[in-house]
User: What shape does this take?
Amino acid sequence: MAVSAGLHVSPECPALLERIDALGEALDARADEAEELGRLTEDTARALLDAGVVRAALPLSLGGDEFSPRQVIETVERVSYHDASAGWTVMALQLMTGTTAAYLGAVAAADLFPDVAGGDHALLSGHGTRPGRAVPVPGGYLVSGSWQFASGMAHATHIHSAIQVEGTGELRVLAMPKSQVELVDNWDVLGLRATHSIDYHCADVYVPVTHTYVATTTTPANGGAIYRIGLVNMAAVGHTGWALGVGRRLLDELKEVAAAKSGTRNAAVDTAQFHAEYATAEAKLRAARAWVMEVWRGIEVTLDSGELLSTEQDTLLRLALNHATWTAQDVGRTVHRWAGTTAIRRGPIDRFLRDLNTGTQHVTSSPTVLQNCGKWLSGAQPHVHWEFLDLAP
Assistant: This one.
């Protein structure tokens, strides 16, 4: 197994952030067209991939850049700042492609990731919270199921899906060609319209066991310490970056609105109330980001030492995500209140607010996860651990 013990911190991160910023104007300019299409435009998606946004999440041992958790947060944050739907799409492709590369063994790696450095590798999209059925057969499984919210599917070559093995109840994750499922073009929503988060289904499709892994694994077959946090915690990394990027963009947009309206007759943005509320929103967002980085800095130290995360760290990373998400939502309400009619016309504020309101509904920031964090932190359930988004004895 090509596994490294310590945490890899990639020297490629600063250059990638610069490349993302260089694409910023193009991302913004194509956002309306992407909403009409229901997916990123081909040139936008290709530019982001060529910049290295997915390679950032792929194992170093396979030719990827293998960013650290905080570097992944910054990457998704930066894309999301320029376009929330592009950031969400990147986040999904990073998560599913990166974890597939890390947790599948040599046979699947040779098939799906033959030349990562040269750009020859699979891109995966799919859904992992509602498992399909997997019937054991010689060498693999016959898989049937229906899944939702496959963000980034328009740009994927392969499917990532959760399955439950009949007879044992074991939860696994598979990788299979996109051609083996039927896609359902039903992504008709208010926000995150350009993420192509469609449904898909299949019946009795053979998937070799080599192209599946245990969903709860924290032992990578490829790559280093970041992958020891497991699939669900890898998802938390990207979602955290997304919330921070969207919140930052909305506050910056409000600042531009204030500059344009200041000095006009009865301008609300010239009031002391506006200035106080803007300062409060700024403080909340900066504090949320600082706490995110504090939590993940501690986790990175643990990973670098070769240890697994404690229950406290598992709890805090979920709570930091929840806090960042709902802080961004609070910021969004402030922006909507003070932007006036600018917030109701087509434009960046309208689009980012719709995307934010949709993104907050993701299961990783649900009230149930927050309640579970409180159960452990308050001492109500001290002798439990996290299994996905639930507490278990």
